[in-house]
Amino acid sequence: MRKIIVTMWVTLDGFIAGPDGDMAWVGEHFDERMGQYEYDLVSAADTLLLGRVTYESFAGSWPKVPDNPSVSEGEKAYARLLNTMRKVVFSKTLAVAEWNNSTLLRDVTPEAIEQLKQQPGKDIIIYGSASLIQTLMNLGLIDEYQLLLYPLVLGSGKPLFKGLRERQHLKLAQSEVFPSGVMLLQYQPKR
User: Fold this and answer.
1) Which of 39, 49, 93, 162 is the most exposed place for a label (fewest CB within 10 A)?
2) Residue 191 reports pLDDT greater than 80
């Protein structure tokens, strides 16, 4: 069965974006090893689960990256992977999902997610999409959390874990410290 893997940037105080959605801090700590981690993660998957906000951000930028002469070859290769992957977008308000290989669904149902996990293929990744992560977490459908812990305290912003119905017990599967000081923490639910 395929795994659903959350990958998310998070500050020491648990925020995924600063006040007013600011995420400039993400690029301030990015290094070559983190780029390789992202490429390897996407290479091991074939499907993205996205909420509307993340979908609109990704669809508005990644399709243009491979043709941009000012972008590195590594970023172009990463963009090509994202552009060819299957995208499942959850939104009640988005009219259409036109990015290559995108499917628009209105509701998150456990049955649809379980069916997706049982289809043949590689892993399934969730980027961003905090409300989708919270919904799937409450349904017990996330198999792994790959958190990129930034050496930064924002003090306020958008929290990753909010609105959870019950405590979530996780076990550390792996960790790595990148040259930038960002730490990758891979957790799996204790079941």
Assistant:
1) 93
2) no
Please tell me the distance from the alpha carbon of residue 21 to that of residue 158, in angstroms, as a whole number. Answer: 7
CA pair distance 113, 90, nearest whole angstrom? 11
Which residue segment(s) compose the domain that 19 sits in? 4-189
pTM of the full structure: 0.92
Name the residue with tokens 């293929």.
Answer: 121
Domain count, the chain: 1
Q: What is the CATH number of the domain that holds 143?
A: 3.40.430.10
Using CA atoms, how far residue 21 sits from 15, 43, 44, 98, 159, in Å, is: 10, 28, 29, 24, 11
| Distance (Å, whole) CA 39 – CA 72 | 13
Of the pLDDT bands very low, low, confident and very high (cuts 50, 70, 90), residue 161 is confident
Question: Which tokens belong to 148?
Answer: 């990129």
